[in-house]
Protein 1
Amino acid sequence: MTDILSDTDKKELLKIAREAIIAAVNRQPLNKIELNGLSKNLQVDGACFVTLMINGRLRGCIGALEAYQPLALDVQEHVVAAALDDYRFPPVSADEVHLLNIEISWLTPTRWMDYSDSKDLMSKLRPGIDGVLIKDGTRRATFLPQVWDQISNREEFLSHLCTKMGARSNLWRQKHLEVFTYQVEEFKEG
């Protein structure tokens, strides 16, 4: 990534996220973020994913692939969505809040990948570096670069991504999908 967030920026975003979860879970209004008091990096439009973990297990993850609002607001919006609106999990309860570990992934813009066939696609992916977005018509799915830690094999990675999109796992071998990559700057509590 070209612009690196400072340690102060990261601490501020994690603070914003933690305060937003506490308020949202307790059905209180979210704090109004005063953008003028934040660093430039937090004021400019930025896209992020917020991942919630409890004891090393996923508890929610929601984000945006395209920047459309200041990064500080994006974090606040997506941490609440990860806590309350991730369809894979029930909403986070007040009893769980203290157990949550918050991870924020600040994304670079996506880049379209030119590839000739499935073998070429696999050779161009960079495990541990690239987040991958695939599209097939109106369907799409993404995995953050951190997913390579669980699925390091390129074939399995693409197959799981197709399944996540709601397609056959081998669709990436049979059809030329739109593929985009991006990178993240990831940081978390603790």
Protein 2
Amino acid sequence: MAFHPQTSHDAPRAEINMIPLIDVMLVLLIIFIVAAPLLTHAVKIDLPVADSAVVDMKPETIQLGIKADGQLLWNGESVEEARLETLLREAANRAPLPELHLQADAATPYELVARAMAQASRAGLEKIGFVSKPEE
């Protein structure tokens, strides 16, 4: 008598049943195919026509130059440091607020540039840009 291991046909299977998953995915696919054209439908409205020009309010730019010897240039004109503060305050009161473009010589001490930036900030100018010469 030989002993054979008994195999039962009633043992649980270790396979995943994919049929219900495929059925659900096909139903979802059909729902999306039917619903997609409904999402792109737009309501047609007759809008009134008005002739108007686009208002382009670009802020004014102010050129502030600082030479290496400390000379200040306001839009190309030489100004004293005391007069610079009043010019900065007047510029800060304009609407829209102008942009300050700071041009400094390569040999200008940092102290002069920092002083000019501090004066502009105290006056209320918020947008300060540095102008440089591009490399060739």
Protein 3
Amino acid sequence: MPQVTANGLTIEYDERGDAAAPPMLLIMGLGAQMLLWPDPFCDLLAAKGFRVIRFDNRDVGLSQKFDGAPAPETQAIVEGMIAGKPVPVPYLLDDMAADALGVLDALGIDRAHVVGASMGGMIAQIVAAKAPERTRSLTSIMSTSGRFGLPPGKPEAMQALLTRPAGIDRASIVDHSVMLAGVIGSPAYPVSETALRRFAEIAYDRSFYAQGMPRQYAAIVASGSREKLLPTIAAPTLVIHGDCDPLLPVEHGRDTARLIPGARIEVIEGMGHNLPPQLYETIAESIAGLARSA
């Protein structure tokens, strides 16, 4: 896959669809490679008339790593924010939003439809708010406003997300990935363990880099709420959220839609915190429908 220099970093990306079609930038979530925008899903969007671009965020996949940069503990970050003395972190979500815009710059793209999932949704929200002239539309999937007081994730889901694998060998990492996918997945749209395991193996073989996730998580916590930022978004916006999301309960999606002027929300029954194959067409058509109307 090709690379570009974006925001001073080396970023791995790929694209599909007609190069002359309206561009659509896909931003993935915490610790996740761009592979979590699956090929068939990207192909669906391309077939609906878009130039689909996905990329590895900094500190994950084949993009540039921040080796040696420490990630402070979450509690220290929160205590510093409360005390008005922010704890230094390697980077913030604003920096990751600048990476996304840098990818567009490197590809010569002035404006794009911006789509983000989970942490990627947070980054996409920042792009839309701070670079309105670059944003044709915004789709925020299974994400959040970050507003304090929203319901926390289910304990078993949060534990699964933050628990370390039994080891760093391939088998342990694959087992852990399968376990996590099973816990946070969509109850009404199950994915076979065989498929989950095969995907985990592909992801591990492409790039296993555990050190980036704590730094990305620190960026989320230290970046705080977007409660005051979201009302400034002018782009046509769609919020997609599952009513069975165990990491970011559906109230997070509702709050995001409430804060963005004119935003529309689609709540999908039985969907958790993933993009199950059974919903590729539904979600792709919703994204495309917003983009066409914009």
